[in-house]
Amino acid sequence: MTAIEFIRQCESGFLHSTLTDDQVAIYMTKLRVFSGSQLAKIYEKILETCMSFPKISHIYATAAELGFFEAHNPSDEFKPHRWEPADCEFCAGEGELSVIFDWFYETRDDRRVETERINRIFPYSSHDRIKYKLSPTEYERIERCSCAAGSAKTIPGVIKLRIAGAT
Ligand SMILES: [Zn+2]
Questions:
Q1: Contact 163, 121 (CB under 8 A)
Q2: Ligand 1 mean position to 89 CA, how many Å?
Q3: Averaged over 67-71, what is the pLDDT?
Q4: How far is the CA of 93 from the centre of ligand 1 (A)?
Q5: Of 92, 45, 90, whose CA–CA distance to 68 is shortest?
Q6: d(C-alpha 131, C-alpha 121), whole Å
Q7: What's the 80 CA to ligand 1 centre distance in angstroms?
Q8: What is 71-119 written as a DSSP string?
Q9: What is the pTM of this model?
């Protein structure tokens, strides 16, 4: 059922109802979101529930009742991570950071202890990060940035690790 068929059916289904051209245009715009089979189901339901020519709000309420506005199960869908360049000085809007740690020995209280420090931070997909070669005393952790971009739900929660010699 097309949108205009839906309107004509309603006009014949509800006695003494005819829309003006302007009203038809408004209905057409609002009905465009539904498929033909959805319109047919909405029409059947409306015949049973509507006392007079259905207002757009009633058509939408009926569509909602029939479950036509329900989102797909989000766990079924692959959600690519989308981001906009931003002026975050760490991630540039990407939300993910490559953090390069360097480990070394230092002497504390006459004891030699292994310690580490952050050596560099790159936006995860930046050219500089991709061409960066880890030295044998470095390793990389992928972390969420603390800016708004870093709170995107599409960034995996797992922190990845990379050490020298591995890809
Ligand atoms: Zn950031």
A1: no
A2: 7
A3: 78
A4: 5
A5: 45
A6: 13
A7: 18
A8: PP-GGGS-----------TTTTTS-EEEEEEEEEEEEETTEEEEEEEEE
A9: 0.48
